[in-house]
Description:
- The chain is an alpha/beta fold.
- The protein folds into 3 domains: 1-115 and 199-327 and 540-582, ATPase, nucleotide binding domain (Nucleotidyltransferase, domain 5); 331-469, no CATH class; 583-680, no CATH class.
- It has 23 helices and 30 strands.
- It has a 7-stranded mixed sheet. Strands 12, 13, 14, 17, 24 and 25 form a 6-stranded mixed sheet that branches.
Amino acid sequence: MNADSALVSVEESESLRERDLGLGIDTGGTFTDAALVDASSGAVVAAAKSPTTRHDLAEGIELAIRALPAEALARVGLVSLSTTLATNAIVEGNGAPVCLVLIGYDQELVRRYGLDRLLPVTNVAYVAGGHTSTGTESQPLDENELVRVARANAGSVAAFAVSGFFSVRNPEHELRARDIIAKLTGLPVTCGHELANELDSVLRAATCALNASLVPLLRDLMLSVQRALAALGIEAPLMVVRGDGSLMRVEMALERPVETILSGPAASVVGAQALTGLRDMLACDIGGTTTDLALVRDGLPGLNDKGATVGRWRTLVKAVQTVSRGLGGDSQVSLDRSTGRLSVGPRRAMPLCFLASRHPEVGHDLERMLSAPAQYEPSDLTFFAISRPPAQGSAYSAVERRILAALAARPQPLWRLIKGDPWIGLYLSHPNLLERSGVIIRSTFTPTDALHVLGTFVAWDRQAALDGARLLGLWLGKSAEEAASMVTAEVQRQLLRSFATMLSGGKTAVNEGSPDDVLLDLALNGHDDACDLEVTLRSRLPIVGLGAPAGHFVMPVASLLSAPAELPAHHGVANAVGAISGSVVVRETLELQGLYEASGLVGYMLTGPFPAQRFAEKEPALAEAIARATDLARRHAQAAGAAQVEVKLAIEEQEGTPSLSASEKLYLGTRIVATAVGRPQFAASAVPVAHLEQPC
């Protein structure tokens, strides 16, 4: 929770020189964490935190790494990064401009049923071509139209996305289109069949388009990170965490950046397992901005097989199944004076104690408010400050320029900003460009301030936190300590509701005022003099607290659930530990289909990420399918950075009946899934980083 770059822990430097180390990095919404982990034992050797610099993630990454012992950095043989870049870009709509090429799609059908609303881009070109469900060509690819589309868009987009109808059964048209577009434009091209093997053509196209929009952004970040690593003398393979918690080399990540969505929660789950060794748990990672919860059973977290949803967009990306809510140490506390109700989150704010530690004049403003509290409203307890210099040449509106001018010298409280200029108040009361782009940040009372007031965590200006709590207390008719306790109780209440939802499999209706909510409040408060009912809850799963504030918020709630609770060492950097503790996991799925004519079964068609292949007999077809799936999984795992790859096969045969009265079985097909797993390869010597400088 220390916002300055700070060393969390370090062992004796003599032992560092004897070890091969992995460096895990996680860029969270509030902090960027770095952890050095022993490759053989999994022990955390050193860890550090630094504020996340959202305008340039590489800056915060470098600061966190610089806080680690220099002699240890020379022993790093592998670097792995969990990043919020893809998730943030999708949620905020900041992806690069893309042209989506749909091959063989029925344009009229897409529009008639409103399926175009599922596509995250408006620049969509329909090109003739595509295949059938058995992988045979339905109509030839219109290469002339493809050339026209490529040339027409070359100067206005940063990347292309190509999705063919039934391309998962035969990718020939996608591959041909990729070659034509890349040759004509020199721009990155994403193919849909490379990202998903599901038959949902619209969601596959949406996933493909999102991926293409992220390629330039991730390339810029990876180049910056590798330059920072080189400047620090770290020349090791760089890997990136996927949304399912597995790892892939940076070269692969640059081709499929959409697979990094939700990598932070995934790294948290892997970190929880690495730090505790538990195979069954409810992992709760509470940071500055969000709280992420995930169930782990028999060593495996649940996966969202239907694909992750990010912001308003559905995808076919497999990701760890988590529940996230805008609740953390830096969540904004709001007060409704008419009801006396405090709310916490979901908006993030800088704690008053931290802002005042950097700008003492904030404390003077708080003292002025305390001298005449009746003149102010709870919303006046909000300050605004410049977070980073505005970009040169940015076209800001008149009201935005007035805000920036007012904040140029020092942070200002809201009441002073809106004095004589109500347009500023209207602008700041809604989602706005200045905050979304990270140019300004709001500051108000937060759970971190509450901890300062209660004395359970003190790192910055406790007096500012006390003054903020006194103002809340005066408006509530409470003392500062009582107001702070109300804030921490509200955080615990929200956590309890989330725990109950997860542990009950979603069966509790924890809506405000519902019967379940009343029961949870009784469990949280212990008793109610007006109620003769006592409620005790018990969790069958251990609860693991992760994140810097976990000891203050997660552990008390775990005790209410009478659950075995664990707050592991280095819980504050669990995501960074998870980033370097994961394995490479690659799955390849092939389909063997029966081909039928009026006379019956006439052959078999093998489909996958290659041209469809026809067989007369099932036995050689299945043997070929197993061999190809195994080879593809092994090679792709090695390309992703795995060493000593182990491949496991799952073969599922599908049968049906030709009619309701028929007793014989009808062969429908066989699905072959090859899963390759391997630990990432550590470098024995320095690895140059210049290879990423080349364009896609």
